[in-house]
Design goal:
The protein has about 100 residues and is α+β, with helices and mostly antiparallel strands. Helices cover about 35% and strands about 10% of the residues. The chain has helices spanning about 25-35, 45-55, 70-75, 85-90; strands at about 1-5, 10, 60, 65. Bound molecules: iron/sulfur cluster.
């Protein structure tokens, strides 16, 4: 979702992978994630579940979490990382998507 504010275009609820003009940056980020040690990464399914929560989160802006300042596609890839608002934990404990945004 993009919003225009004067000449500045803000992309709310978008991951880097979704933003036009960010393809090169996302490619670099994806390569970095792919080269992380496998034992440090979450499974592909947990990764996508975490990003699904981020996509619905009010703190996501232009691929970055406004709560922690991280690019969520990188933060979500690392197993030891957590959501600063514990939204991933609620999802991983079986909460509904709506419950993740309480
Ligand atoms: S607060 Fe949590 S769910 Fe929201 S964007 Fe940041 S990491 Fe993602």
């Amino acid at each position: 979702m993009e919003q225009e504010s004067g000449n500045l275009r803000l992309c709310k609820k978008c991951l880097l992978r979704d933003m036009e003009g960010q393809e090169e940056y996302f490619r670099s980020l994806r390569e970095y994630i792919e080269n992380l040690d496998e034992d440090r990464k979450v499974s592909a399914s947990v990764y996508e579940e975490r990003l699904t929560v981020c996509r619905q989160c009010e703190m996501l802006l232009e691929g970055m979490c406004r709560s922690c300042g991280c690019y969520v596609e990188l933060r979500a890839a690392v197993a030891k990382n957590s959501c600063p608002r514990e939204y991933w934990m609620k999802m991983e404990q079986g909460g509904s998507k709506a419950a993740c945004q309480e």
